[in-house]
Design goal:
Chain lengths: ~230, ~210
Amino acid sequence: MLALALLVAASGCASTGDPRDPLEGMNRGVLAFNDAADNAVLKPVARAYNYVTPEPLRAMVRNFFNNLGDPWIGTNNLLQGKPLEAITDWMRFAINTTIGFFGIIDVASQARLEKHDEDFGQTLAVWGVGNGPYLMLPFLGPSTTRDTAALPVDWYKDPVLTARPIALRNTATAVRFIERRADVLAVSNTLEEAALDRYVFLREAFYQHRRNLIYDGRPPRERPPAD
Amino acid sequence: MWKTLVIVALALFAGPAPAQQPTSPDELVKKVMLDIQNAIVADKDMKAGDRDKSIRLIEEKALPYFDQRGMTALAVGVNWRKASPEQKERLVQEFRTLILRTYASSISAFADQKFEFRPVKLAPEDTETTVPVRIVQSGSQPVLVEYDMEKKPDGWKCYDVRIAGVSLVINYRTEFGILVRDKGIDGLIDALTKKNRSLDAKGGAGK
């Protein structure tokens, strides 16, 4: 915690003056903290996990956790006025939990019931709540004020975080976190290579990705300017 | 300049190859992607992440179908018009190198992806389109990769690639904008040159 405070203080003045990001100094500090934690602990653990777990088993772990998320994704689709998508999500959960052995096999995708990506932050966005200032969250990464405010609702509805006994909850949460980190190892390496300023690059990618999710993959396009 | 080189190379090694290429944008994307995937699957070095080899593969198989000037202009954004012809030339050159380096280091992941291609509907007079390709993964939402293409005198060219809605090109715009604001166009060129050099030093020289 002290280290975090020091990092925040150390990078307090770096700012590129983006109006979406008034807290850039603090956010850069949190990113530095996240990177330090990632390099020291998360990335090595994720690499080790990748190394000892064969891909078919990893897919089962991934499927298991993703399946647990489908009912809440369905609820969010319903709240966003997309009942057909909601029904798909709940059907996915019903099929995968039964025929798919508690979700470890994603039978529903093979049956062309596509997985969606929704959360309460997106629902608020569809309801017209603006992004608010950009926030870099410790361990969790890029977010906005709106999405951060929505997180407790997602957590409250998260079967992993609300699992009991506590030991089970902690183990499941840790495994899921490592699995997700392992999934994006290749992407995060690319990010490091691609960016001139990683902080800005990550922020832009986040905004683009988030916008795409909110528009369900159909945001307006752009063309190159003439010479 | 590289365009001339490619034309020379094609002329030398492949004869009248361009004539055999698919003329529709969706067929072109499909062919290029599968060609690259097959080449990686067949090559142990590239599967293990040999970057120099991957760079050569992309240069040969994919780059001829990219509108590099258009990509660079899109990434530079409003400042593009302020650049002199020489600066534009340099920007295109450095941006091309950067994209190539980055792309090449992640290409080994291509080996075991499952692609789903869908035809695009196109009227004969259409000069631009988006070709969607879905990467299907069990248990997660399929990843949509979109190729924004424009019809040029020498065939369809891609000027932007979006992965799950994140445009690799547009993602640079803010960064580039900050650099131009603080250090001018030459400052941006310098930053790109430095970045490319550091990547070369890290991952073994490109070419």
